[in-house]
């Protein structure tokens, strides 16, 4: 039998231990970074870290969170949009960067649909309309009636221009014709404090933020913003019960750069859905009036596009703009 030349034997041996040409590297092949485009300590950051902890265990690889705040979340989002689509750089963000900012900012440095791969809905939460106890209103209808009787006399507080609190109240104003002033604060906590002090007639804050203050006797919740009543506040009606169609939620989602391979996208989606529907996490979500309805990447993408269209109309109708 004729022997193969030594160089050919070595070459064939090499082929047996390297991937075939064109085959992708195994995933994950090194630590995964989850970028949060906001400062540490917020609710998006908290759930990103929860996902990172469990995802690392599931994938057998380190998963860590990196905060890249700036420009209402646009800075960190742009960074991920320009990252390699290999599954090792992901984004956990909120409704503002991927459904609202595209209508608010004239020169957004990314396209929230074209430049990203939707992976999974992480959590979805509603807000509460909080009024000072000293204000003699107990419902959305009564607040609207009071505002109509005193045009421009009442102010509402929000976490800033373009936030869900600002957009929702402006939506109600355009539907009803009432005139209320807007006081934008630096964050949700400041807007809540303004309602506690009686500085504003209304503030929209997360249900989780409002709950600890309901027994203080200083504020009351007159409505929630979701399509259905919030679990921790079953006796509080939604805004849409008074004004059908007016609803909004502060959702958190996970995205990757555009062109993320479908196999990687689906694997991460499967793990995130498993994490968020585990009994331990479901209990934590429920306590904060959050849910995590399972969605495939395609369903999450359709949900995101519907949210972009909805809030674009609210922004256009009310002439809201951030420069």
Overview of the molecule:
- By secondary structure, the chain is of the alpha/beta class.
- Helices cover 40% and strands 19% of the residues.
- The protein has 11 helices and 11 strands.
- The chain has helices at 6-15, 43-59, 74-81, 95-104, 140-149, 164-176, 188-197, 207-210, 262-276, 279-287, 297-318; strands spanning 32-36, 63-67, 89-94, 116-125, 127-132, 155-158, 181-184, 202-206, 219-224, 250-257, 290-291.
- The strands form 2 sheets. A 6-stranded mixed sheet has the order 2-1-3-10-4-11, with helices on both faces. Strands 7-6-8-5-9 form a 5-stranded mixed sheet, with helices on both faces.
- Helix 6 (164-176) links the parallel strand 6 (155-158) and strand 7.
- Helix 2 packs across helix 9 (262-276), helix 4 packs parallel to helix 11 (297-318) and helix 6 (164-176) packs across helix 11 (297-318).
- The longest helix has 22 residues, at 297-318.
- It is globular, with a radius of gyration of 24 Å.
- The termini are far apart.
Reconstruct the topology from this structure:
Layout: H1 6-15, E1 32-36, H2 43-59, E2 63-67, H3 74-81, E3 89-94, H4 95-104, E4 116-125, E5 127-132, H5 140-149, E6 155-158, H6 164-176, E7 181-184, H7 188-197, E8 202-206, H8 207-210, E9 219-224, E10 250-257, H9 262-276, H10 279-287, E11 290-291, H11 297-318
Parallel strand pairs: 1-2, 1-3, 6-7, 6-8
Antiparallel strand pairs: 3-10, 4-10, 4-11, 5-8, 5-9
Helix pairs in contact: 2-9, 4-11, 6-11
């Amino acid at each position: 039998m004729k022997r193969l030349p030594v160089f050919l034997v070595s070459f064939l041996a090499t082929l047996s231990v390297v991937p075939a040409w064109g085959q992708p590297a195994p995933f994950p092949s090194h630590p995964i970074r989850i970028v949060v485009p906001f400062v540490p300590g917020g609710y998006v950051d908290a759930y990103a870290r929860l996902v990172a902890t469990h995802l690392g265990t599931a994938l057998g690889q380190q998963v860590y969170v990196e905060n890249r705040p700036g420009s209402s979340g646009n800075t960190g989002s742009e960074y991920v949009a320009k990252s390699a689509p290999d599954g090792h750089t992901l984004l956990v963000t909120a409704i503002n960067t991927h459904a609202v900012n595209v209508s608010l900012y004239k020169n957004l440095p990314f396209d929230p649909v074209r430049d990203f791969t939707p992976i999974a809905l992480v959590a979805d939460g509603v807000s509460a309309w909080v009024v000072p106890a000293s204000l003699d209103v107990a419902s959305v209808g009564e607040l609207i009636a009071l505002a109509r009787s005193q045009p421009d006399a009442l102010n509402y507080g929000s976490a800033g221009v373009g936030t869900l609190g600002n957009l929702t109240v402006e939506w109600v104003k355009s539907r009803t014709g009432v005139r209320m002033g807007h006081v934008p604060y630096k964050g949700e906590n400041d807007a809540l404090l303004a309602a506690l002090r009686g500085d504003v007639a209304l503030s929209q804050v997360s249900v989780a933020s409002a709950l600890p203050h309901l027994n203080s006797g200083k504020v009351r919740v007159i409505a929630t913003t979701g399509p259905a009543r919030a679990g921790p506040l079953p006796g509080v009606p939604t805004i849409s019960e008074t004004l059908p169609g007016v609803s909004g939620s502060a959702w958190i989602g996970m995205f990757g750069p555009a062109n993320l391979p479908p196999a990687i996208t689906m694997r991460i989606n499967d793990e995130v859905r498993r994490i968020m529907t585990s009994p331990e996490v479901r209990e934590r979500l429920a306590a904060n009036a959050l849910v995590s309805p399972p969605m495939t990447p395609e369903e999450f993408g359709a949900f995101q596009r519907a949210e972009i269209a909805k809030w674009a109309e609210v922004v256009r109708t009310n002439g809201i703009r951030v420069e």
